[in-house]
């Protein structure tokens, strides 16, 4: 984060909470009448939008008035950073970086033919 964000946060920000990644969430102490309150996050470490959990994402985007509470579901996976551009990026079968060869079609579809 830059000096301007730190200064703005120090002068006008009110801490709302912190998530499991150590990111801190703020809002304006005072909001002008007729205006929507400003909300922002100060990331712990490198700024990466994928490190904002769903409960805080909803609050940041004014979907909810307060961060969502409750236990995480068993089907929710732990956070993984965006791996695009790294050697761990996902390449589907048939991609040039995975040999460029696709399996033959299995016959589970029929191509469209104009009548």
List keywords for this structure.
single chain, 115 residues, alpha+beta, three-stranded antiparallel beta sheet, 2 helices
Arrangement of strands in the largest sheet: 1-2-3
Rounded mean pLDDT is 87
Query: How much helicity do the residues have?
Result: 10-25%
Q: Provide the domain count.
A: 1
One letter per element, helices H and strands E, the order comes to: HEEEH
Number of helices: 2
Distance between the termini: 60 Å
Query: Globular, elongated, flat, extended or rod-shaped: what is the shape?
Result: elongated
- Give the biggest sheet: 3 strands, antiparallel
Low-confidence residue ranges: none
The helix-and-strand class reads alpha+beta
Approximately how much beta-strand content do the residues carry?
A: 5-15%
Annotation, overall tally of beta strands: 3
The Cα radius of gyration reads 22 Å
What does it look like?
The chain has 115 residues and is α+β, with helices and mostly antiparallel strands. The chain has one domain. The chain contains 2 helices and 3 strands; from the N terminus they run H-E-E-E-H. It has helices spanning 3-12, 54-60; strands at residues 13-18, 24-28, 39-42. Strands 1-2-3 form a 3-stranded antiparallel beta sheet. It is elongated, with a radius of gyration of 22 Å. The N and C termini lie far apart (60 Å). The model has no long low-confidence stretch (mean pLDDT 87).
Describe the secondary-structure layout.
Elements: H1 3-12, E1 13-18, E2 24-28, E3 39-42, H2 54-60
Antiparallel strand pairs: 1-2, 2-3
Summarize the structure.
The protein is α+β, with helices and mostly antiparallel strands and 115 residues long. It is 15% helix and 13% strand. It has one domain (3-69, 79-98).
